[in-house]
Amino acid sequence: MNRLLLSLVALSFFVLNQGTFAAPAVTAEEPQLIYEEDPSSLVSDIQVVIRTGSAEEPVGKQGLTNIFSELMLRGTKKYDRQKFQSTLERLGATLSVSVFHDQIVFSGEVIKENTFEFMKLLEEALFQPKFDEKELNSLKVEILNQIAHIKNSNNRLGGLAIRQELFKGTPLEKPAIGTLSSVRKLQMPDILRAYNNVFFKQNMLFAVASPFKESQWKSALKEMWKKFPDGAPKTRRIFEPKVPENLTLIVVHKPKTSTGVLTFAQKGITAQDPERYALGIGNFSFGGEPLVSRLFRTIRGELGWTYAINSSYGAMGSLSYQPGIYTIVSTPSVEFTTKTLFKTLASWQDYVRNGLKKDELTLAQESSVNSYPFEFESAQKRLGQRVYSELYGVPVLSQEDYEKTLDKIGNRELKKALKDRHTEKGWIVTLVADKDVIAAQLAEEQKGMPYESQLKISKVIMPAELIQ
Amino acid sequence: MSGNLLKNVFFGVVLSCTSWSATYEKVAEKKLFNGEVVKEFKFQNGLKLLLVSRHQAPVLTYQVWFDVGSLNEKMDQKLNRTGLAHLFEHMMFRGTKKYPDGKFDELTSRLGSDKQNATTYYYRTNYFESVPSYQLEKIMELESDRMANLILDGELLEKEKGAVVGEFRRAMDNPSRLAWDELMRLVYTESPFRFTVLGTEEEIKGFSLEDAQYFYKTFYAPNNCTIIVVGDAKEENLLPLVEKYYGSMKPQEIPKLTLKEEPPQTKERKWEGKHAQATSEILLMAYRIPPVTELDIIPLSLISSHLSNGMESRLRKALVDTGIAVGASAGISNRPDLFEVSVSLSEKHSAEEAIRIIDREVALLHQSKISKNDFERALNQELLSVYGSIGNNNALANLFGEYLMISGNYLRGLEVLEGYKKLDSGDLQKIAKKYFKKENRSIVIVRPTRKGKVS
Predict the structure, then answer these.
(1) Which of A332, A458, B98, B275 is at a distance of 20 to 30 A from B234, taking alpha carbons?
(2) Contact A145 B326 (CB under 8 A)
(3) pLDDT exceeding 90 applies to what percent of chain B?
(4) Chains A, B: CB pairs < 8 Å
């Protein structure tokens, strides 16, 4: 379900009922804490967000953010890895890290009785990681295995081929986990430098949902906070995708598949884009919402060519300061691969030219408004909304304001937004399938068309090339 | 640090029972360890209803569970194939007289439904969505309408077969899927668990409209159905609506499911094969275990946590940290009743290396009790996984529904959790010796077609 655009920009009526929310600020004494109390919860959820991600890595050092973040969970100055992890897990806790292009998120969950013992371990990991050479070597082996394993996932291969084309020469060209060659080259001095560059007070945000009082958290975090240094956030770098004027087809060669993975991509939008509501509504009914979208109803429902088909502005994560990409992904049975390609393209052209029909528009609006309470149904979800708002500076709307905002969107507004932000033909398309099968299908599908106007395979990539 | 954090699963047992209205009976009302109450009702036509009222948010989860899956169709004399239970689940979205094809999806979407979907397994089929609580009556009307008034159209059936074949082929492109299917064929020589839920491509394409009508008429009846509601709903509002929308449905005679008895396993079984899409080896291993209703399941569950839950789990340390595997896990499957170990090897390593390591770990479980620290770690990791999800409407409804279909007791999952507190590490050792024997296990290895660097 893709209500991404519609869901990440609002503040719950729950929160509004509790009074106006003011974004907390970083001070020398207190960290920035976004808090949701849930007295009924049996666990505490803790997130530490670092406002720097893999997009700030030097080209050629992809994977550096991921590896230093993971290494932080593998031993502290006080405890070796085994002692650290077993103590943490005996508390009934988990601690993991996720690296995105613009942030690092440490996520912990712990049985409520052990919450503040867990926090001592988290402090150790954040403030005094050991960065042990032996653990680095072991982690590198593990990560290299994970990267090699990407070849097993046709969906991920399709995504990597897209990134490589659209973001060539930038840190976004490769996934946050890195590549075989970049990860092999990473050394301890790189790790230490990267850690020191991002772990400072002004770059950190704490987000907690728990059964305890906020005051208990403030005092628990106060001591930890003193230990972190001050620093100055760097200017964020923005990377625009390089989209071709006309459709460019790239095949990632995988022999003997019985389904293909077909991915269309062009430039997406930022979290702050004024057209985001209109484009979110449009995408809902064009391809974003399973079961009811135009693409689903025609290509799966009427034609039965594919099991899954979906379009999204979230292929590179939540909308952010980066424009990212807009994608349409499907997994047709192999004999319908190029048919699905042409049908998707025709549907897109109709959508960009004519927008939505009235009933499609009202469906998207009603569904989005009525499902809005789910964005705030739990403390964790409310927390997510507030963190997102803080990180990207987007306004937060009440249910009423959200409804008013969507009600203002008509087909005229949608068509304008589509014209402003998208193109009819400027797609990179990747197809993970057998290259010979696809070439034969293309020839058959375009029989009788002048050769120069036929769609041809621009490039064939082997899976191994995408992870080197 | 706290030691055993387990709470009593039930504070109270049955607070009240057997209060009759015109068409339904309140069977039980039970208090859960988190203070919430689950109410159980049975209607005169056999329909069962579970309700957990929680009002923290104006939303609810609505789930409809049918006690039918691929086992039933395989054991049915008329059908004797698999794949229809799943194909039929797709057809449930294809229209009634009142709401033609596409309308169900459109209307549920307009209601603001969240996580709407359906799944089919060996022993059950479920349909589920979450909606704002003020939409309760509308979602009930839509769900009850397709349960009673589905129109099966031949043309739509053929179109839906295309999507299901697409789903089947996507699964076949996945080497892990081949490994699982072969494991079931290896473990079960007689039982219908050896036949896949999805069926074969030929079976999917071969189902007729008459087959679908027969399946619908035979298995989709109120006395074969349980509704589970978790969230912002009150008993006094819910029950009249259930009566209104489901009360007039007639019960049917549901064919009793009798599975062919699987003969005891007397020696280790092994299957090896290749898959064109595999780039490294996959190992699946299964030990036969008793059903979830047996006490032995409780220590077996804790052993699975010891072996594969967390960064300090035995399999992770022995296989992933050493670079031999990309992933390794162990877990219990109920219906089929198996203790499974799954390993996704790294490119330079072989399944045989993983088997040697697993054998070593099993020998350790046989030879000595696990340490107090390891026991506590395994236990608290299990508790975290339940405590962390029980507050989610959908997760709690799933927990109840799945255990109801597996064992007839929706609280069985929480009973297992409570059972942990009666265990010590000696119980784990005893149970490991009882079940983790080579003559009780089956092994499947899937290798890449092109051998590459595997040694």
Answers:
(1) B98
(2) yes
(3) 90
(4) 200
Res. A229: pLDDT tops 60 = yes
3-state helix/strand/coil string of chain A? CCCHHHHCCECCHHHHHCCCCCCCCCCCCCCCEEEEECCCCCEEEEEEEECCCHHHCCCCCCCHHHHHHHHCCCCECCCCHHHHHHHHHHCCEEEEEEECCCCEEEEEEEEHHHHHHHHHHHHHHHHCECCCHHHHHHHHHHHHHHHHHHHHCHHHHHHHHHHHHHCCCCHHHCCCCCCHHHHHHCCHHHHHHHHHHHCCHHHEEEEEEECCCHHHHHHHHHHHHHCCCCCCCCCCCCCCCCCCCCCEEEEEECCCCCECEEEEEEECCCCCCCCHHHHHHHHHHHHHCCCCCHHHHHHHHHCCCEEEEEEECCCCCCCCCCCCEEEEEEEEEHHHHHHHHHHHHHHHHHHHHHCCCHHHHHHHHHHHHHCHHHHHCCHHHHHHHHHHHHHHCCCCECHHHHHHHHHCCCHHHHHHHHHHHCCCCCCEEEEEECHHHHHHHHHHHCCCCCHHHCCCEEEEECHHHHHC
Chain A residues in contact with B390 (beta carbon < 8 A): 42
Partner-chain contact B326 A376, CB within 8 Å:
no
Q: Which domain holds residue B321?
A: 269-448
Contact status of A257 with chain B (Cβ, < 8 Å)? yes
Question: Using CB atoms and an 8 Å cut-off, which of residues 387-426 of chain B contact chain A?
Answer: 387-388, 390-393
| Cβ contact B109–A363 (<8 Å) | yes
What total of structural domains would you count in chain B? 2
B292 and B205 share one domain: no
Q: What is the ipTM of this complex?
A: 0.90
* Reported CATH class of domain A29-226: alpha beta
What are the extents of the domains in chain A?
29-226, 248-467
Cβ distance of A333 and B373 shorter than 8 Å: no
Please check whether residues B69 and B179 belong to one and the same domain: yes
CATH class given for the domain over A248-467: alpha beta
A377: chain B residues, CB-CB within 8 Å = 56-57, 59, 393
Span A173-222, pLDDT tens digits: 999 999 999 999 999 999 999 999 999 999 999 999 999 999 999 999 98
Q: B312 vs A82: CB contact, 8 Å cut-off?
A: yes
